[in-house]
């Protein structure tokens, strides 16, 4: 049974962009879209709440505006609206439990790429048991495709080749969930998949008192074989997805950020573990979320 795609909405432009991205994804998956808006009564309402409107009424109007916008742009989709009293983090995590996917908006870092990690999105990403996609303000359907030639109308955008899906692979710490999500995403979009794997030179390859040498061909070949073995069952399951592999020595975060230029989606993993400081997302995922401009999918795994 297919489950809904869920998008968290508020009054921000980034949440509206997330709702529209979620609508496109729901159409690709053949499922419904559930828009969730959490609200909490405050003794001092936000300046955006009109003086003659209760906070609950304003919350209902906020949810309705987002739903009307999505329905107008995507008339073929079924949209449900869920107004939840209480903290946003709890409401979004509860909604995600029964969802295919949770989509949230996140502010870009000024005029450059990347996301500002607010307290709500950070806690949801760190604690969600299902996939979470972050979308920044201004993201549109056209951004998912290669540049259109002159004279092509917006209605023809789906016919324009889709930008690549990029996935960061860690063969020693990644479950099947990550590759399953990445391959399925590329398959639904008729996109190519770019698999990135960056490895570090083992300590016994580092010369004492000097810089690390360039990895030898045997070390590179061994990592390429490891990546090929991890991808083999997924290539067989999705034979229509073109796959490009990049294997090399370096920092995973930097390589992923570089590869994300021109991508439609970057897929990264988050290990489901908690420390004394609480749940966390890991340094690579944290860096990607701060420096990548396209939507980022964070996939929890064991």
CATH topology of the largest domain: Rossmann fold
Ends apart, CA distance between termini: 24 Å
User: Which strand order do you get reading across the main beta sheet?
Assistant: 3-2-1-4-5-12-9-6-7-8
User: Please, what is the average pLDDT?
Assistant: 85
Question: Residue ranges: pLDDT <50 for 5 or more in a row?
Answer: 109-115
Largest sheet: 10 strands, mixed
By CATH, the architecture of the largest domain is named: 3-Layer(aba) Sandwich
Class inferred from helices and paired strands? alpha/beta
Q: What's the quaternary structure here? A: single chain
Principal-axis shape = globular
Radius of gyration: 21 Å
Can you describe this structure?
This protein is α/β, with parallel strands linked by helices. It contains 8 helices and 12 strands. It has helices at 13-29, 55-73, 88-97, 119-127, 176-189, 217-237, 252-259, 283-291, and strands at 5-8, 33-39, 79-85, 101-106, 132-136, 165-168, 193-199, 243-249, 265-271, 274-275, 278-279, 296-301. It is globular, with a radius of gyration of 21 Å. The model is unreliable at 109-115 (pLDDT under 50).
Provide keyphrases for this structure.
302 residues, alpha/beta, Rossmann fold, 2 domains, two-stranded antiparallel ribbon, 8 helices, 35% helix, globular
